[in-house]
Amino acid sequence: MNKNTVAIVGAGIVGVSCALELQRRGHEVTLFDRTAPGRETSYGNAGVIARSSLMPFNHPGLWSVLPRLLKNTAASFRYDPVFLARNLSWAVRFLACARASVFQETAAALDALIRLSISEHRRLLVEAQAAQRLRTNGWLFLYRSEGGFAGSRLSRETFERFGVATQVLNADDLSDLEPHLKPLFPRALWIKDTDSVDSPGQVVEAYARLFVSRGGQVRQAAIGGLGRSGTGGAWELREESGAVLEASKVVLALGPWTREFLQKSLGLSVPMAFERGYHMHYNAVGNASLGRPVYDTGGAYVLSPMAQGLRLSTGVQLAQRDAPRNLVQLELAERAAREAFPLESRLEAQAWMGSRPTLPDSRPIVGECPRHPGLWLAFGHQHIGFSTGPGTARLLASLMRGEPCDIDPLPFAPGRFLR
Ligand SMILES: Cc1cc2nc3c(=O)[nH]c(=O)nc-3n(C[C@H](O)[C@H](O)[C@H](O)COP(=O)(O)OP(=O)(O)OC[C@H]3O[C@@H](n4cnc5c(N)ncnc54)[C@H](O)[C@@H]3O)c2cc1C
């Protein structure tokens, strides 16, 4: 068995980025996915690569809004009570991580990962001949009232502490920047050092093509399980079709499917919840357009200009990954978005749904699996996996090769949740 071979399972942004980085460092990499690259969560996101995403959902400000969220009527957050009851220990740990000390650690860790990822995305977009998809003009947080703006104080202070470039806008400034937004927002915050793309799925596809053009292999196959092969500590991947393949190292990058896969194939349990979200594309009335993604904090949606139209994406629905859809948040988001922008009609018959895979401390797991040498993990990227796939790949490749890391790996260590 060639010691250089790596099999990566999952060809979302995380798996594809890992494939490119390990290939760049001299490994012979095969990338497996049951569909084509970039067709799942990495397809349907809002395409924002945001410095501001260093603020996890579980920050100290969560406590003051928790009673309202628990009523289960907010557009920003809904939960299935049965799912919550079955994942109560996840929920307790998630809330425990909203305390100030853990929040500080998480914000610092995510900031480092995001900064690393922004420069990597910019390099990869050029190398993959997809730079035309990149916008570097930031994104906007919109506030429907002065009170709403005042409520964002912790975020603004955190952005300042981490040097995130922002500018507070009044209604006139906002109208200069985005003239087609309706005059609904007395305040906005322009997060300036944020990039976005107009088709995250096609960016992942372009990265996968780059990997193949450099000699990498993409194999369309559903992996049903894995185990030790018996030859020199290698791993064996079992395709659902029955084929068995060997590799000296395996990287699991299955996004929201990793929890089930680890449980089924190795009996390992990870505390992951699914923050489901929906999107729908719209055209605009007349020549109305947006220059950059906007996050209407009161309306609880993001509206992003995409190649396919304006993509409206929703907040969080905590539920089993494959449970039936519940479109109430999309309907509320659409109503709110129509108040803010001249949307015309829906462009698809059915909304897209995906799951943000979230661990209790809102940090991904990146590193070697305890007690399973040669098995590497890269998953749990919650709301920011499109942004942080490329930084994750650098971190994972450095750890695998025993080379110095660009950022501190400890906040992402698998031992946080796996023993
Ligand atoms: C509504 C919404 C909006 C979002 N907006 C943003 C945003 O603006 N910016 C941002 O950074 N992030 C955003 N995110 C989060 C981001 O999309 C995810 O964190 C990221 O896509 C996760 O990438 P991944 O590669 O880990 O997983 P995925 O993209 O889900 O990839 C996992 C892959 O594993 C494959 N797979 C599963 N099981 C098997 C198997 N048995 N065998 C083989 N292959 C298998 C799947 O087919 C899939 O391709 C958003 C998410 C949602 C839901």
Explain what you see:
- The chain is of the alpha+beta class.
- It has two domains: 5-42 and 202-271 and 361-416, FAD/NAD(P)-binding domain (3-Layer(bba) Sandwich); 51-99 and 127-195 and 272-358, D-Amino Acid Oxidase, Chain A, domain 2, CATH 3.30.9.
- 34% of the residues lie in helices and 26% in strands.
- It has 13 helices and 23 strands.
- It has helices spanning 13-24, 41-44, 62-70, 81-86, 88-96, 100-127, 146-150, 153-161, 171-177, 200-213, 258-266, 328-340, 385-401; strands spanning 5-9, 28-33, 48-50, 77-79, 134-135, 139-143, 166-170, 187-191, 194-197, 217-220, 223-228, 235-239, 244-247, 249-252, 273-284, 294-296, 301-306, 309-314, 316-318, 343-346, 352-358, 365-368, 375-379.
- The strands form four sheets. Strands 4, 6, 7, 8, 15, 16, 17, 18, 19, 20 and 21 form an eleven-stranded mixed β-sheet that branches. The chain has a six-stranded mixed β-sheet with strand order 10-2-1-14-23-22, with helices on one face.
- β16 (294-296) and β17 (301-306) form a beta hairpin.
- The longest helix has 28 residues, at 100-127.
- The chain is globular and about 65 Å long.
- Flavin-adenine dinucleotide (FAD) binds next to α1, β2, α2, β15 and β21.
